[in-house]
Amino acid sequence: MAKRSGDYFGLSWIVSLILAIIPVTSWILGALTRFSEGKIVAGLIRIIFGFNIVWICDLILMIVSKHILRILPV
Description:
- The chain is mainly alpha-helical.
- The chain is about 60% helix and about 0% strand.
- The protein contains four helices and no strands.
- The protein has helices at about 15-20, 25-35, 40-50, 55-65.
- α1 packs antiparallel against α4 (about 55-65).
């Protein structure tokens, strides 16, 4: 698999960080990213719970590791 520069559809890290700061875009793009990876259950979990604790974890992990939270890594 090709190395991606950011976690939201291969966008640059700074653009992904800006999108992660905005709660609505983080919620929607996080779910869409998981669905595009074929992780249906993880996408549904992001839709249901992605607007609170997952959003804060996404922000912290995007700054530290440049990737969003992987709730279900399978």
